[in-house]
Design a protein that fits this description.
With 329 residues, this protein is α/β, with parallel strands linked by helices. It has a single domain, classed as Aldolase class I (TIM Barrel), CATH 3.20.20.70. 43% of the residues lie in helices and 14% in strands. The chain is built from twelve helices and ten strands. Helix 9 runs parallel beside helix 12 and helix 11 packs antiparallel against helix 12. The longest helix has 25 residues.
Length: 329
Amino acid sequence: MLTITQEKYDKLVALSNENSVISALAIDQRGSLKKMLGSEDNAAIEEFKVMISENLTPYSSSILLDPEYGLPATKVRDKDAGLILAYEETGYDASSEERYPDLLDNWSALRIKEAGADAVKILLYYDIDAGKEINDIKHAFVERVGSECDAENIPYFLEILTYDTKIEDVKSKEFAEIKPRKVNEAMRLFSEDRYKVDILKVEVPVNMNYVEGFGKEGEVVHTKQEAKQYFKEQSDSTHLPFIFLSAGVSAQLFQDTIAFAGEANSTFNGVLCGRATWKESTDIFASESDATHSATVEWLKTNGKQNIEALNDVLNQHAVSWKDKVEVK
């Protein structure tokens, strides 16, 4: 059971739907979004985030944005949508191979709270099998931010993306074979009290493209039963509330994955879904000469809305209230 203050509890309520499930929209992408939009124009990046926030937060319980390009989008979100702000630099420190995280220089947990956020989010690339010296630096980083969030009484969301130092392609069959242990052991580690994490934002423990019935014929790594066991082991690896990230898969595959997690008796508590919701609109936005981006808005009001509502339907059937895992001190 996670024990938190009343202030943190109230902020988690603000981030959740009426079932105390987090149905959050993620648009904190920066470097990857520039590539998707084919633009380095900061104004265009900000405008796209504003359009996402304005048109899709009426159907989400909250939105994840970044302070670099996302602050204008925070102002137009739906009045009932909570706000999570990213605290890290985009990606990771490219000056080394260890994928060390960086914080935004002129931000802090206090400043994020002052900006009206209900939670702080950190992204961590983590390999449970990396060298002790490498991981110890990352452990201290997570501890440092946890202490900062705890001091400011603001919920701490830790997003973990696993990798292997010896396998370049995390979407490969080779990585799919070892991914369950990587994901589940990382979750177990960062559930320890010393890190002061309130919500884990994590990958599903398997690459569904290599699961029987989901992937290509002949490319199966896990049977359905094996995959369900990994989902159950993931759920059992933590006492903390946890939510799934979409990892850029299609909207339909993500919905199917969430349903599969529910069938496996995973006690997940929601999603923070990004590209699976809005990715297709980036090509429309990039190709439009219309200054109002009317075609993009139309796509968001129809297809984007449909993606979120379909995901919400799945969440209503399978996600569990985070209140079952939390008590107020």
